[in-house]
């Protein structure tokens, strides 16, 4: 058993210059490569009667396995010396040895730089199986990582296939991404954009305004009666603009944040005291109220301007 690969290699050497069948040589080469994928001869030596064998659990540096009569054997005892494995094909176990079978060989080869020809090409690289996607052959592969990034190879199984960037995704709705990782990033960006800006329709005589922890809020509404407008979720809020249409002499008190206005900058007829704006007896007069944070504890500087159009 241990000589199979070596014998095939020797056969190929002997065939050189004696046959013209290139395909025959290629077949033998492929068979040798296949067997070499699970070549036990490189890790299990032929039985040596002078060698000391131990069980795998001993872990003291002595061999556990041997090859004898093209069969593989595992030592059943420690300090196993001078005991030849059975030669009778009908005996698979004695007091010192038990026969073990060889695992199957596989047809997958480690990726290597070179020319890849026609047909289905699958290679093993970095704990993953990759399929060659390039239709035009021959294909010269020189850097598997660069080629994988260029989508000339596709991960079809293995560690890399379990990453979000390697899992295909069919775009749906407003998402344009074609992989799970890209879709996650796209959603994150949209969420970030949503957390940056929020637009709120207050309606008429609103009493609450949820800022949603957005960085910037734009709100609009109308008042025909005095109300307290309470702001919530203002942790991330840095700027808020309220488009207000006022009718009647209303007092709009702002709660949830502390606001400051310079009296000299207030429009004619508008006054401010204790977080409350008092408006004159208007009839659908339009105001822009602009508040900008200047302190971490929700204190805002305010400015009011008259709007000229709806």
Word description of this protein:
16% of the residues lie in helices and 35% in strands. The longest helix is centred in the middle third of the chain and has 17 residues, at 180-196. β17 and β18 form a beta hairpin. α1 (4-15) packs antiparallel against α2 (22-36). The chain folds into three domains: 4-100, no CATH class; 109-162, no CATH class; 196-306. The chain contains four helices and 20 strands. It has helices spanning 4-15, 22-36, 144-149, 180-196; strands at 65-68, 71-75, 97-100, 109-110, 114-116, 122-125, 128-132, 139-141, 153-158, 197-204, 208-210, 216-223, 227-232, 239-248, 251-255, 258-261, 271-273, 276-278, 282-295, 299-306. By secondary structure, it is α/β, with parallel strands linked by helices. The radius of gyration is 40 Å and the shape is elongated.
Q: What distinguishing features does this structure have?
A:
alpha/beta, 3 domains, six-stranded mixed β-sheet, 20 strands, 16% helix
List the helices and strands and how they pair.
Blueprint: H1 4-15, H2 22-36, E1 65-68, E2 71-75, E3 97-100, E4 109-110, E5 114-116, E6 122-125, E7 128-132, E8 139-141, H3 144-149, E9 153-158, H4 180-196, E10 197-204, E11 208-210, E12 216-223, E13 227-232, E14 239-248, E15 251-255, E16 258-261, E17 271-273, E18 276-278, E19 282-295, E20 299-306
Parallel strand pairs: 4-6, 10-12, 11-13, 12-14, 13-15, 16-20
Antiparallel strand pairs: 1-2, 2-3, 5-8, 6-7, 7-9, 14-19, 15-18, 17-18, 19-20
